[in-house]
Every structure is written in C-alpha cells, then in structure tokens.
Amino acid sequence: MKKIELYWQILIAFVLAILFGIFFKNQVHYVAWMGVVFIKALKMIIIPLIFASMISGVSNIGDAKNLGRLGAKTVAYYLGSSVLALLTGLILVNLIKPGVGADLGFKESITGVGVVNQSFGDTLLTIIPDNIVKAMVENNMLGIIFFGILFGFFIIKVDKVYKDSLTNIFNGLFEVIMKFTMFIIKFTPLGIFGIVANQVASQSNLGEVVARLGMYIGVVLLGLVVHSMISLPLILKFIGKVHPLKQLRAMRIPLFTAFTTSSSNAALPFTMEALEDNSGVSKTIVRFMLPIGTTVNMNGTALYELVAAIFIAQAYGIDLTLGQQAIVLVTTLMASIGAAGIPMAGLVMITIILSAIGLPMEGIGLILSVDRILDMFRTAVNVWSDSCGAVVVAHSEGETLKV
Fold this sequence. Notes:
By secondary structure, the chain is an all-alpha fold. It has 18 helices and no strands. The chain has helices at 6-23, 29-59, 69-96, 120-126, 132-137, 141-155, 160-185, 188-201, 206-238, 244-250, 252-261, 264-279, 283-296, 299-315, 322-336, 345-357, 364-367, 371-396. It is globular, with a radius of gyration of 21 Å.
C-alpha cells in the first residue's frame, strides 16, 4: 500500500480537526493533549537546532581567503535580495492585514520575552548576550542566533586542521538534530489535529478565520510574485545586464525541479549545470555561490516566514508596532541563514521565529494546512534568486554570459 505523503496527512488532519471541533466540542479535551505534546517537542529541539544550524551554515562558507572580493559580492547580494524580499512581505501584510478580524482570543495567554512585551531598544540589546549559557536557559533566541553566526564565522578563520575538525563536528551535530527534528515532524498531523480541534471548539467566528487564512495565502503568493517577477528581474536587467526572460528560460529545469520537490537541495545540481551551460557563468562562481546560497539565500522562505509571523500576531489580536515588526524582519533574516533546503524546513524556521519574538507557537496550526502549496512556490523563488545572484556577480567579475 502506497504511503500517504506528509502534506496530505496534515491537510486531512486539519479538515478532520475542524469537524471534530465543531461536532464534539465537549470531548475536545481528549485530543487537545496531542497539540500540547507536539508544541513541547518542537520547543525542546529549538535551541540545539538554532545553535547547530547557525554554526554549520556559516562555517561551510569556505576558507577565509574566499571571503575576499567574490565573497563580499556574494554576501552583499544575498543580504540585499533577502532584505528586499522581507520588505515586500512586510509592506503587503501591513496593507492587506490578512489576520485582522480573526482574533483567536488568546492574547492574554502570551508570556515570555519577545517583541510583544519589549521595547525596540531592549530587544536590540538582547541580540548580544552577556552569557551564552544564560541566553540558552532564558530562551534568548536572538542572542543564540547571533552567537552561532559569529562562532561559525571564526571557525573559518582558524588553521585548516582545526577548521576541518570543528566544521565536521558541527555538520555532524546538525545532521543528528535534523534527524531528530524530522522524527518530530512525522507527528505533525497528530499535533495539528490536537491544536486545531481545540481552537475550533473555542471559536464562534470560524468562517472569518477561514476567510482570513485565504487572504494570508493570497498575501504570500502576491509577495512571491512581486519579488520574483519584478524585483529580481529589475536587478538582473539593470545590475546584471541580462534579459530576465532569457535567464528564466535558461533556468526552467531547476525551477521546475524546485517547484515539484519543494527542495532547493534537490534542485542544486540542475541549477549549477544550467548556470554553467545555459547562462555561461564560470565554474568558480557557480561552485562558490550556489552551495552557500542553498542555505543562506532563502528569499522566498524568508518572505513567507515574515508574513506568517505577522499574520499569526494579527490573528491573535496582537498589534505589533513598526519597531517590533523591524525586529521580526531582523529575526527572520538571521534565522534564514541556517535554514535547511528541504521540504518542511519552513516549519522548523517558523518555530524558531515565533519563539524568538514571543508569539504563540500554537499559531502554527493556522498555517500548516496550506504550507505545502506555499512551500512549492517559495522554494522556486529561492532557487530563482540564487541563479540571479550568480549571474549578477558573474557580470560584475567581467564574465561574458550567454543569456
């Protein structure tokens, strides 16, 4: 018998949970515990996942000598394109306000330290922890992310014998924790069933919540379209001096692979081949930028995560100030550095972001039912941005391109 894919399991669980919450309100406590256990399991893995993913992601950039002109251009493009994607999502989610009007009535249950109950200045100060162990104990996610990025950066600065050993250790640690995380993710349908059934049972405005979820999908897709079809083509045209449609045709196979598999890792060999053979980008640039970009340059995923976080805040009746939303943007940008190029990586990232900024992780139940379809689109945007970056840097290096 063919196994049902996880995303179908999640969708089925979501639908059944709605029905259970509607027709068995008095019995919902029998299943609500599954959501509690699932959220606790995710929280359990967050800190080791952040620590390992940040260090592994940054330390795999390469030798320190690679961080010269080519490295500077690569980092500049990846940061610039990611910020552009995040600003696009931020503007759209504030203009359309998909979560406003779907108040879930849980505002009073929100506790902890995050942008919900900290000033902008205080939150910035928490980015630099005075004690990393204390930061872990107190769930200071921004501090842990910042420390992990610096630790990974200085690994590549030490002698090769130590660099290789430390990189292998943290790569191995990351692989172990990802195995652990994927094991937890297998139980997502049960967790979603418990979370959604409990929320539906306590709702009197379910129709409004569903309508707002549809608006949320629209905002994410619109943001991805604007970034991939307007922002990145403009960068290609005016900075890379390349016709966007020609580059799009050159990348059709890796983009289709990314869309259908929801994995930028799966599309990586096709992306590298297309850039070298169809676009004429040198092997030096392709082999330096693409492996880094697969992990660091997550334009589509970053946009999705920011919109999701603010949508959840809106749906819970939490009014984030512009300063607090700026911290959400910074947090999302930092978290995207260590994101894995695999299906369901979005779930891992959103738990980190929600935990970092003090928003309720139960809000995951709102968005996971539609995560798969959005995952396909955002992964394609991730790969498209990687290819655009390689072309732009190749042009800046004086390479003659085919497109």
